[in-house]
Specification:
The chain has 17 helices and no strands. The protein is mainly α and 324 residues long. GO terms for molecular function: DNA binding.
């Protein structure tokens, strides 16, 4: 909450002063868009990004944003993973040429996450390795953000230390008094435990859910926090109906709960996009709108997905995608 208030205050100052500060108006706007995405205000982030009124201040030199970096994050939040991958690929290419703000490690981590949702876990691992090779000071916000984003790769690849890596990240965030980061790390740990991944700790789903609830209460302005805690408790309680309801709510906040696993069945790239959206409870009409295809096309893809996975309904989709 405080970060967004500060960002918007600086934006107003940059607009009004028409001074040296005005040159940073566009990066400030981009930062505010990303903060809104992080908070779960995806609609607000999209509106702010689409607002071109600041471009009228054309006679002042602007520091340019990295093309595709913000657009890629919006697409990730909306579940448009092919689009996200394309935007982030462009951003990475640009950052390889010039990266004065040290954004390449974060962009590579985001590309790894996009690859996870597209079901390409090998590409995700490749991006993870390259991101981790980039030097980032531990004091940098990018260091923690990169670490949390890359947790999804271990989860999707069903790595033996995926849960413990997520719990370690949560512990580090708690020690630094960063409850949103703690909550996000615990979310990955929860999904891993629910999927049967091992942990060296004496922990149950209920334990993780309780800790998520405590962290959520300490999150200032994080719109998605309460729903994440509710999802965790529903999952721990084995309440499939409530879990599905929370999954649909979280999808509206840009938070996803069903990363595709390495599967013996081969889903096409479009099917890999549609399956997790449907599993999250999003209607065929809304999926069609997000992917700019017809509702009939979505239903046709879903029919093929069901046949490949050996299921007959959406209700079975989350478990089928998780390999349970």
């Amino acid at each position: 909450g405080e970060a967004l208030r500060l960002g918007e205050r600086y934006m107003e100052a940059a607009r009004e002063s028409l001074s040296e500060a005005t040159a940073y108006l566009m990066p400030l706007r981009a930062a505010c868009v990303v903060i809104r995405l992080f908070a779960g205000d995806v609609d607000g982030a999209e509106r702010m990004h689409a607002d071109e009124s600041d471009l009228d201040i054309a006679h002042v030199h602007h520091h340019r944003n990295v093309p595709g970096l913000v657009e890629g994050q919006i697409a990730l939040a909306r579940g448009r993973w092919s689009e996200a991958s394309g935007h982030l690929g462009g951003a990475i290419a640009s950052l390889r040429e010039s990266d004065p703000r040290g954004l390449l490690p974060a962009a590579l981590a985001l590309a790894a996450e996009a690859a996870v949702w597209l079901g390409d876990v090998d590409e995700a691992a490749h991006y993870r390795e390259e991101s981790l090779r980039q030097p980032v000071p531990e004091s940098s916000t990018i260091f923690g953000r990169r670490r949390r984003t890359l947790l999804w790769v271990g989860l999707a690849r069903r790595e033996g230390d995926a849960v413990d890596q997520a719990l370690d990240a949560a512990d580090n965030a708690a020690a630094a008094d960063l409850p949103p980061a703690e909550l996000d790390s615990l979310h990955v740990a929860l999904l891993g435990l629910a999927d049967g991944l091992p942990t060296a700790r004496e922990l149950t789903l209920a334990d993780v859910a309780d800790r998520m609830a405590a962290a959520a209460k300490r999150c200032d302005g994080l719109e998605r926090a309460e729903a994440m805690a509710g999802f965790a408790h529903a999952l721990a309680d084995g309440d499939t109906e409530l879990t599905s309801a929370y999954e649909a709510t979280l999808a509206g906040y840009g938070i996803w709960t069903n990363p595709p696993r390495q599967q013996t069945v081969a889903l096409t790239r479009r099917e890999q996009e549609i399956a997790p959206l449907a599993a999250a409870g999003i209607s065929s009409r809304d999926i069609a709108r997000r992917l700019t295809i017809s509702t009939r096309t979505v239903e046709s893809h879903l029919a093929r997905i069901y046949a490949k996975l050996g299921i007959t309904s959406r209700a079975e989709l989350p478990a089928a995608l998780s390999g349970r």
